[in-house]
Amino acid sequence: MTTVPRHIHLIGICGTAMASLAGLLQLEGHRITGSDKAAYPPMSDLLCSLGIPILEPYAEVNLSPAPDLVVIGNALSRGNPEIERVLDERIPFTSMAALLREEFLSGRSPLVVAGTHGKTTTTSMLAWIYQTASQGQTAARENPALEPSFLIGGVAENFGTSFQLRPTQPFIVEGDEYDTAFFDKGPKFLHYFPDALILTHVEFDHADIYGDLDAVKTAFKRLVNLVPRRGVIVAYDGSDNVTECVSRAFCRVERYGFGDTAGWRIRNLRYVNGQTQWEVDRGGVHWAEFAMNLAGEHNVLNATAAAALAAGQGIQKESIAAALASFKSVKRRLEVRDQINGITLIEDFAHHPTAIRETLRALRAVYPQSRLWAVLEPRSNTLRRKVLAPDLVASLRLADRVVLAAVYQQERIPEADRLHPEEIVSALNATGTPAELHPDADAIVAALAPQFVPGDVVAILSNGGFDGIYLKLPERLRELHPAAGT
């Protein structure tokens, strides 16, 4: 069927999923425009490379002339000037998730990766496994029909992008449990109707839209209920919450993890010369050995989940092993940003205490002799609230030194719900982990840069722009150490 080109405008285009959808729509031949309140990498760089304009700030004039269709991002609400014009003039509008389903998932085989943590990396790994299998080392193993379409909530470094569109059946998509739009408060992943599903973790998160853990579990149970009987669910074996969510599935459920009951069991995990190596038993029998350059038990779990689903879809373990061995990473996931005077600066997308814990554990494994700094901006809707404050303290204690910034837009959080970073700092200091609080990125850079010494590893943790600290800190370090180079 020939696509009729339209002018499609995306409000909130710099969101990871929205920018990826913009790229897919452009590949279909549509004219794409978009707007946002603040553009920052990596998605702003991606959109710039595609030649898609980003109009800043939000304004009614951004919809002149009126587009054929408007996609409204899930972070936006009534009162946004562009939304108000859309409603006043009855310009056709939809959500990211609904349009993705309508334009790209219908007629294909959606392979969905969901979970509170790990879904972006796991989705990227699964896409790279399919890509590798479609370009086998020998003609006998080449299978172009496996080359996937995908949409990932981050830039996969193997591809250099967060999306791909191919005329093949597999469409690999990251399934987000966050709500869909101001007019559709259900999770985005309920639009995707998976043929196969990976479920990584289920924990309390997104405290702005879920009242408690039971509400989160209900969302995932609804997703599980959408998988057809012919499908399969690959689910983490180390979580009672995951077990509860998949307990009433109508399809086959395969479990992965470190435990004896896991159908895909990880064992003999080790770090050798900077490389992560492990073995996988399938049904109690040795199945494969894998190696990759990413560190951390959480990444071994991610890789094993992707391997299990791919194997179940007919991909040979040799292709899986080759893909994992050559897998790079995802932008903003344990990404080494700079090395200056022996000081290593690492960026990680931190949105939840569990994610922070696993990031710091992974860095401990890679840099066992280094002094490890955690520099955190509480920015996600969960970290800005006090509901998980004890878990946050426990996670940050894995660092040698901790620095907190002020809570991002704290005034938007109800007073009774707010995280108070001074209390986190006080609790850390009381338990023997030196911690300090600074109001913003500039103050952090001024205070910390002189304290760093060769060998230090600095993990900068935020799910946003952190007021440009990723550029400001290395710039200051180069001023302090002009002869050091990189």
CATH H level, superfamily name of the largest domain: Mur-like, catalytic domain
CATH class of the largest domain, named Alpha Beta
Share in β-strands:
15-25%
List how many beta strands DSSP finds: 23
Amount of helix: 25-40%
Residue ranges: pLDDT <50 for 5 or more in a row?
Answer: none
Name the strands of the widest sheet in spatial order: 8-7-9-6-12-13-14-15-16-17
CATH fold category name of the largest domain: UDP-N-acetylmuramoyl-L-alanine:D-glutamate ligase
The average pLDDT value, as a whole number, equals: 92
CA-CA gap between termini: 52 Å
Structural class: alpha/beta
Largest beta-sheet characterization: 10 strands, mixed
**Rg from Cα:** 22 Å
The appropriate CATH architecture of the largest domain is 3-Layer(aba) Sandwich
How many domains make up the 3D coordinates? 3
Query: What's the overall geometry?
Result: globular
Number of helices: 14
